[in-house]
Amino acid sequence: MDVRTYMSDVGQRARIAARALARATTGVKNTALEAIADRIAEQRASLHRANAVDLASAKENGLSHALLDRLELTDATIRAMCDGLRQVAQLPDPVGAITDLDYRPSGIQVGRMRVPLGVVGIIYESRPNVTADAAALCLKSGNATILRGGSEALQSNQAIAACIQAGLADAELPEDAVQVINTTDRAAVGELITMGDFVDVIVPRGGRGLIERVSEEARVPVIKHLDGVCHVYIDNGADSEKAVDVAFNAKTQRYGTCNTMETLLVARAMASEVLPKLAALYADEGVEIRGCAETCALMPDANPADEEDWGTEYLAPILAVRVVADLEEAMAHIAAYGSGHTDAIVTEDFSRARRFLAEVDSSSVMVNASTRFADGFEYGLGAEIGISTDKFHARGPVGLEGLTSQKFVVIGDGHIRK
After folding, report:
1. Which pick of 35, 74, 130, 373 has the fewest CB atoms within 10 Å?
2. For residues 392 and 104, which has the higher predicted lDDT (pLDDT)?
């Protein structure tokens, strides 16, 4: 069977499964989620074996440290997958909720009902845990999903898919509700993003190359973000201990994620107090600093930054640091070089915090907190399908509600329009 025929068959089966999921009760969906979590926990050893094959191949092929980090399935990652599935099961089901129901002068009642999107296609690289996260959110929100992971994670994704299929069967839901593409042929992506008859929305998760390709070639709506150029700004008068803790965590807690800080901005009045402390901490972690002239004077091991550094998502132990005059200059820098993902301010001034929240145009804006919190699990969404920097149809971490739409419902009692 060629790729086009295979993908068409996958799409048709997903569309049929979507209709079955749309009428599934909350209880049945929750039973499936719990069953999938049980299966993943039971199959931990087989998941590790499959992942070891992928890791060995990835190392032979020279994958970067950041991608290897995303690819690895640790015990903690597997527990997090199970926790995410169980947490999604505990979340309120958005499907069928009617809001804003109100009487109109004509006597009819008009409201809005939340409904599934239908079939969600998800294309992702490296992270096999996305297979479980995506399945959980799509299942709970009543959507069938077609998952196309990267070739580097093929064995891991297929092992997780087997657990998902078994859990769906346990709950007597169609196994076609979650399909993981079993070919590494890149043509499968081209087919998936153009199957408008079978797919309602595409979510790409991966590098700029993947997301640009999907954005340019897709014939169905796309929920995406291109870069995670995240900033932390240390404001004039900030608590220095708090500032150092946030700036250190935002960069070093994990390097290969889209919510990792890539540029640190420091008010000139705070620079001499916090930058030498941070220099020592970053040096211990092996973080390379690329800074402006003032930064290099205060952080002796720093290398001079160039224009390209301010807009780069490193996904590595590299950090751009710039000393700015004040809040105004910090926000101007973020507007010029940021990607609209996540930006944070460390400040003790309520008015400046409010200005930062109101004026920085990003999908997540934070006060006195690490950018690493920009995550669906941390936001209480259970898991996330991805993070959107678009302004339609969803923005920020996309959880259950972001995977639904609304339709108008009208309730009458024989009403006719006059």
Report:
1. 74
2. 104
Closest CA to 87 of 148, 26, 155, 37: 37
Neighbour tally for 208: CB within 10 Å = 10
Token pair 């540029």: residue: 263
Predicted local distance difference test score (pLDDT) of residue 220: 94
Question: Which of 30-44, 58-72, 190-204, 356-370 shows the lowest per-residue confidence on average (mean pLDDT)?
Answer: 58-72
Which residue type is seen at 375?
D
d(CA 290, CA 165): 48
Check whether 1 has a pLDDT greater than 80.
no
200 CB-contact burial (10 Å; exposed 0-12 / middle 13-18 / buried 19+): buried
Q: How many other C-beta atoms lie within 10 A of the C-beta of residue 308? A: 9
The torsion defined by the Cα of 102, 104, 106 and 112, in degrees rounded to 10, comes to -60
Determine the average pLDDT of the residues in 56-63. Answer: 92
Nearest to 408 by CA among 169, 72, 41, 113: 113
Render 353-388 in DSSP notation, one character per residue.
HHHHHHH--SSEEEESS-GGG-STTTTTSSS-S-EE
